[in-house]
Amino acid sequence: MGDKTIFELSENVVGIIIDRYVSTQVMEEILKEIEERIKGNKKIRFFLEIKDGNKISLAAFWKDMLFKCKHADDFNKVALVTDIQWFRSFADFKDNLVDLDIRAFDNDERLQALNWITE
To answer: Strands 101-105, 75-81: parallel, antiparallel or unpaired by DSSP?
Structure first.
């Protein structure tokens, strides 16, 4: 997939930066990458940034939500960096549905998100 950067800050901290429209297909690729990382670690901390100006489809969001509910025990915490307000709001709401520490940050709060996910 183009316009995607994957990085590791430590053995259990994985990040993906997306600079394109997040369709269902793109979300499936992201979730496949996460599943690969989960296999190798007990629990991971996950950082996802959707670069400014990009959008996410409702179907892709739904797929993400179902995945995080199913795999909540595989994450220590999740940092979501995006200016897509409805996605941030639902991410905050999702935090109340599953026992998972999910925090949403604006794109200009990227460094705060990176600091938080590595704490």
So the answer is: parallel
Token pair of 84 as six digits: 């897509």
From the number of C-beta atoms within 10 Å of its C-beta (0-12, 13-18, 19+), residue 46 rates as buried
What gap in Å lies between CA 86 and CA 96, rounded to an integer? Answer: 16
Residue 45 token pair: 């901390």
Which amino acid is present at 38?
I
The Cα 80–Cα 71 span in angstroms is 16
CA distance 2 to 17: 11
Helices (H), the chain: 24-40, 58-70, 85-97, 110-118
pLDDT in tens, 2-26: 588 888 888 889 899 999 998 999 9
Q: What is the value of pTM for the model shown?
A: 0.84
